[in-house]
Amino acid sequence: MAAVLRRVGSGAADGVTTAEVAAATGLPRSTAQRVLAALAEEGFVDRDARRGRWYLGPELFLLGSVAAERYDVTSTARDILRSLAATTGESAFFSARRGDETVCLAGAEGSFPLRSHVLHEGIRFPLGVASAGLAILAYLPVPDAEDYVRSRAGELTAAYGGQHERAALSRRVAATRKRGYAVNPGLVVPGSWGVGAVVFDRAGAPAWALSLTGVESRFNGDRTARLGTLLLEAAHALTRRIAHRG
User: Fold this and answer.
1) What CA–CA distance (Å, rounded) separates 76 from 89?
2) pTM of full prediction above 0.70
3) How many domains in the chain?
4) Is the domain of 143 the same as that of 231?
5) Are 110 and 88 in contact (CB under 8 A)?
6) Please, what's the b/e burial string for 151-168 (b: 16 or more CB within 10 A of its CB; e: otherwise)?
7) Domain containing 139 — which CATH number?
8) Rounded to 10 degrees, what is the CA torsion of 35, 37, 38, 41?
9) pLDDT in tens, 12-43
10) CB-based contacts of 32: which residues, under 8 Å, 6+ apart?
11) Of the candidates 69, 103, 67, 73, which has an alpha carbon nearest to the alpha carbon of residue 237?
12) What domain range is 53 assigned to?
């Protein structure tokens, strides 16, 4: 059921079909339909009968409101996202680590009319894919990061292409540690670039990331470094805020 809920959640405002849930989870379509129906009875998902699409349900909102008191720092990050978007003209996003994935929690659109559409609230990527996940992966303890790359590179390559092979991913992890921020040079969607910087929790673990995304022409040469510097400053400021919460 958890995998089904995650897939429904990743559909954001557009929702998902039963077939999409089945494909993402590996369940037969009939089984996916039964699971969705059971979740709907409890209010965890909701179905638009006219469009035939599933959405997260009201019960999750209620549970999430309770959990947010302990876990959510999105409200703490929103003004930083808005500032990044206003300063750079690019779209800014805040993502959280959830196990071996990142999930996008919030975004702020920039003023530049051409935008990357890779990220949106609710979308998930494995660690090492897209700039937020690469930033978090790079700041895991070195043995943990190396184990992840070794065990997951084949799966990432199959899903996202040859630039996610073990050697290439290891080089990007090392480069991220060296410069302090991650760069995704159009590896998820050609022409759609991103930079990401890690945000640490109160224990010093890489728990979240800020990222800026846009079209390739806006991320070439020295501008990428300038965006990376701005992002690092914002990530450090957010880390300090989180450390002093409560």
Assistant:
1) 21
2) yes
3) 2
4) yes
5) yes
6) ebbeebbeebeebbebeb
7) 3.30.450.40
8) 160
9) 678 889 998 898 888 999 999 999 999 988 88
10) 4, 18, 21, 22, 25
11) 73
12) 2-64
